[in-house]
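Record type: ASSEMBLY
Status: queued
Input:
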Amino acid sequence: MTSKIPSLPTRLFTWGGSMTDEVMPIWMQELIKAIMLPVIGIMFFLLIWGTVAQNIDTSLGKFPGPVQALEQFQSLITEHNDERAKEAGFYQRQDERNSARLAEDPSYQIKIRNYTGKPTFIDQIGTSLITVLTGFILASIIAVPLGIMIGLSKNLYAAANPIIQLFKPVSPLAWLPLVTMVVSAVYTSDDPLFAKSFITSVITVLVCSLWPTVINTAVGTASISQDLLNVSKVLRLKPMTHIFKVVIPSSIPMVFTGLRLSLGIAWMVLIAAEMLAQNPGLGKFVWDEFQNGSSNSLGRIMVAVLVIGLIGFLLDRIMLMLQRMFSWDKQAVLR
Amino acid sequence: MNTTNKSINPILELTGVGIEFPTPKGPFKALTDVNLKIAKGEMISLIGHSGCGKSTVLNIVAGLLQATEGGAVLEGKEVNEPGPERAVVFQNHSLLPWLTAYENVELAVKTVFDKSKSKAEMKEWIEHNLNLVHMGHAMHKRPDEISGGMKQRVGIARALAMEPKILLMDEPFGALDALTRAHLQDSVMEIQKELGNTIIMITHDVDEAVLLSDRIVMMTNGPSATIGEILKIDLERPRNRIELADDPKYNQYRQQVLSFLYEKQRKVEPLTKSMSSNNSEQKKIA
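Status: finished
Output:
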């Protein structure tokens, strides 16, 4: 329109319409929406956090604001690096000592001792991730086939449903004492492959994160379209072919919905379990800092809170990526 | 009733077929006393109002429903379960959405010719059938990447690939637009001429029935629906829809079907009720 009547101001014609269409190309508007809006959200949150924090006095001093949390984050990283340097130094000295004694006396039996420093924040993150993934993967290995079986048979569904509904809302904290006692009693070995605390955490995570996958897989399996079942009947597919070619692909979207819920629950449960049972991991880090009660503790806990949230978010994104990879339904809106 | 039969030796015989569905209000009799003999190579249309039990007849022949009275006999064997010798082309294509066109046909071919065909023969057979329905160019596309008419073509290819003794089509073109439907009708006529399949097709479309069929089976309204009239269509094949439009014989057949549907078996139920009966029929089929 502007090129035809160049003498008239375009504003006259676009009055009431979106001015940005004229001023900015679409890609720039999209970019602003994709980046600027989340950034504004975060800034707003930081502002509120900072203001509110200044007005809360605790026995350990003022509640940490964003700045204090950032300081503690940096100090946690420094501690981690220092610890790593100390560890490297320890092993280096041990090697030197050993080689010196070996030179003196060739028949000397080398003794290698492990470094026994306290695990840093980063180490705790690693432990937590390994524990949660182990528990979650074991839970999935049980839950998906179980869900498919339940979904295939209406009778089995009716039989299993009350049990699932009963155990689904149970808090991990209620399971924990039982799991701890059972693990102590049953898992006895002189040279255990895994620490008892690890087994306890894994089982607690497993027991709590099983249910969403079971339920969603069962519902997904039970709600296969009747047309596809008829196709399978007309083709007289063998039971296994039917399950692998028709049932499983058709329920994949629901299975993934269940898996994502399960992983989210697994991560929440793990932190609680670690905290209460003194299993190594981020939960124990939070608890230790709470018991420590230094002026830095609250800031460090705040860092842990944010990191726990970030990891939970990343885990969910990874599941979403897997879902996009495996799901045939590319048009489904996944968020 | 069966005096118009083409041959003495029918491939499929329905004798006294009736079916009752249990409902909370007591049994509901959907079909009663359906008798029909179909000769090899014959093309039969079932036509009637919604809810008259056309799909129920087809599902009994397919083995997806069990008749409570009488039964269907295919080449001397009673039908009591579904099987690939009675391939079905479903109304909404029913392709597995996670498989490509080729893989959908492959699933059928692998099941039916498990032992009798080698891998290379299977591949050739799958491609042959897809080419037959003019889908050779889009073999490796998934159902959500192709149009409704193309999906239905793949559905037909899948059914043909099973080498069925009888091909059952449940309103195969009902969900398609008029132009696509005409294309597919031509394809079906072409394929039937080439392979000589025996076909039972359900339709709502009077023109489609007259154009494609050797006989049109017109059904009365339910409950307790049965065969009202059978109309033999004595038109030369190959048939051409444009030439037939002016053919007095064609128009007479058309008029006969219309008169059966809209005079003798006129639906007098209010719209909402007929919709709900339609729904209940779908539920029963499901």
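Annotation: Strands of chain B lie at 12-23, 26-38, 43-47, 69-74, 77-78, 88-89, 166-170, 198-203, 215-219, 227-232.
Annotation: Residues 3 and 230 of chain B are 10 Å apart (CA to CA).
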